[in-house]
Design goal:
The chain has 167 residues and is mainly β. It is built from one helix and 15 strands; from the N terminus they run βαββββββββββββββ. The N terminus is likely disordered.
């Protein structure tokens, strides 16, 4: 018999009874980002550390399950494993608005026992920033990392960062 561990996320809007237009109450603090949570780890890699303008590279994000049981994660939105790219000084570049617009649909993700789930995104070197088909970034130094949408209200799984350059 296969045992399944279940982790559940709750969208902040549902938890707080707010809509997108409502300001968050002053006592709400963002979740603390952690590198390991309940036997889960996020990894991120890039297939090259130098991307020339006109070329592209793939960011690969892996959610590792170190548990001996399957983990099923339920989400309060379409956001699951998300890439973020910032400049070397910490300014957010992708997504350009600083956060993801996610569908308001309940979704789930099943991670096999001692296995992983992989998601990939394309990064392009460009002369102008454009988020329509992946991240298009102008020349500069960048860091990429991945976040798993909050599993608990006070903790959020984050990968280590990887550095790369657009020339």
């Amino acid at each position: 018999m296969l045992r399944t561990a279940k982790l559940t996320t709750i969208a902040a809007g549902v938890l707080l009874g707010t809509s997108c237009a409502d300001p968050l109450p002053a006592e709400v603090t963002p979740p603390r980002q952690v590198l390991e949570l309940d036997g889960l780890r996020l990894g991120v890699s890039l297939d090259t550390t130098v991307i020339l303008v006109g070329d592209s590279a793939t960011i690969t994000m892996q959610l590792h399950n170190d548990n001996a049981t399957v983990v099923e994660i339920s989400f309060g939105s379409g956001c699951q494993i998300l890439p973020y790219i910032e400049t070397a000084s910490g300014a957010m570049r992708y997504p350009s608005a600083g956060g993801w617009g996610c569908t308001q649909a309940l979704t789930s993700l099943t991670v096999p026992a001692r296995g992983l789930v992989t998601r990939s995104y394309v990064v392009r070197g460009a002369t102008a920033t454009d988020d329509r088909n992946g991240a298009s970034l102008i020349p500069g130094q960048y860091r990429a990392y991945a976040l798993l949408d909050a599993i608990r209200s006070q903790q959020q799984l984050r990968s280590p960062t990887v550095s790369f350059e657009i020339r």
